């Protein structure tokens, strides 16, 4: 009996040590990636600031579409006023800042093609875990630097925003942004892992980005689409990358459906995580360790 208790204690201690070791490794990866991003913070700040310039173009574009200030002014277009459209576009940009993962899929594909991915096989570092913390560090530095441009843009566009949403809407909005980060990360990682079979994923990535731009609602709100098309794509994961957070803030999601939609997004996160794990496991089994 005492032998069984001792064995169980040893197993518990070993499990705790493994957990703490994993947490420590994740912290080291995160801290190193943050330091790496801050090395060229001047260039990073400049490139981040430049990305905000198209906002001005979009605002003038919708100003023209709605014929603001003319005798043909349109008060509402598909249920969106001009103020709603400007707000939608700004919120979609915030959502895309969370969910976009530039270079993730292509980076995984390049690592597979040139053999660099073998470092994740021979070292006690999980590929998906490392990439996750690397992206977390990137987003943290990005938002620290982008706070100023965001604040300037939202200050000048403050009159376009509707009244302050309720606490429930705020909670759902923030949660949708965090879940959108996970959906975006897992989708792009999945595209990159296809490189175990095709080696070159740039064509697949181009097709994915083309569909992503449209189906995520980055170009236009998804509820502008004809009913049958909207219903056909509303349960795909793409809408959670841009449209869904903006629609929550603008209260375009019926209150009775709000948490159901959040639940569907959680299901997509779990399904995509499982798909990534399966793809990684099977891909490593057939990996030939090419490269130097």
Task: Summarize the structure in short.
Helices cover 73% and strands 0% of the residues.
Topology:
Layout: H1 2-39, H2 41-50, H3 54-65, H4 82-99, H5 104-114, H6 119-122, H7 127-156, H8 167-193, H9 195-198, H10 202-215, H11 227-233, H12 243-249, H13 255-286
Helix pairs in contact: 1-7, 2-7, 3-4, 4-8, 4-12, 5-8, 8-12, 8-13
Would you give an account of this structure?
The structure is a single chain. By secondary structure, the chain is an all-alpha fold. The chain is built from 13 helices and no strands. α2 (41-50) packs across α7 (127-156), α4 (82-99) packs across α8 and α8 packs parallel to α13 (255-286).
Q: Main attributes?
A:
292 residues; globular; mainly alpha
- Gross morphology: globular
Radius of gyration: 22 Å
User: Tally of extended strands?
Assistant: 0
Number of H- or I-type helical stretches? 13
| Uncertain spans | none
SSE class: mainly alpha
Beta-strand fraction estimate: under 5%
End-to-end distance, in Å? 53 Å
Main sheet specs: none
Mean pLDDT: 81
């Amino acid at each position: 009996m005492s032998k069984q208790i001792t064995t169980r204690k040893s197993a518990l201690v070993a499990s705790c040590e493994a957990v703490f070791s994993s947490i420590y490794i994740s912290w080291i990866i995160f801290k190193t990636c943050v330091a790496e991003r801050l090395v060229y913070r001047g260039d990073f700040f400049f490139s981040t600031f430049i990305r905000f310039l198209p906002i001005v173009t979009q605002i003038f574009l919708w100003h023209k579409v709605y014929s603001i200030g003319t005798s043909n002014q349109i008060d509402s277009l598909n249920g969106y006023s001009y103020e709603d459209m400007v707000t939608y576009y700004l919120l979609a940009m915030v959502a895309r800042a969370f969910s976009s993962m530039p270079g993730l899929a292509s980076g995984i594909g390049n690592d597979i093609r040139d053999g660099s991915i073998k470092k994740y096989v021979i070292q006690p570092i999980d590929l998906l875990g490392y990439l996750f913390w690397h992206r977390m560090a990137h987003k943290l530095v990005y938002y620290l630097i982008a706070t100023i441009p965001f604040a300037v843009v939202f200050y000048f566009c403050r009159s376009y925003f509707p009244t302050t949403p309720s606490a429930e809407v705020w909670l759902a909005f923030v949660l949708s942004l965090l879940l959108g980060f996970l959906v975006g990360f897992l989708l792009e990682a999945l595209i990159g892992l296809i490189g175990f079979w095709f080696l070159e994923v740039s064509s697949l990535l181009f097709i994915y980005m083309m569909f992503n731009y449209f189906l995520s609602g980055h170009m236009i709100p998804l509820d502008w689409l004809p009913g049958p098309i909207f219903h056909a794509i509303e349960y795909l994961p793409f809408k959670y990358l841009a449209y869904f957070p903006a629609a929550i803030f603008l209260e375009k999601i019926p209150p009775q459906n709000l948490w159901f939609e959040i639940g569907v997004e959680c299901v997509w996160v779990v399904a995509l995580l499982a798909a990534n794990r399966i793809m990684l496991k099977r891909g490593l089994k057939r990996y030939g360790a090419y490269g130097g």
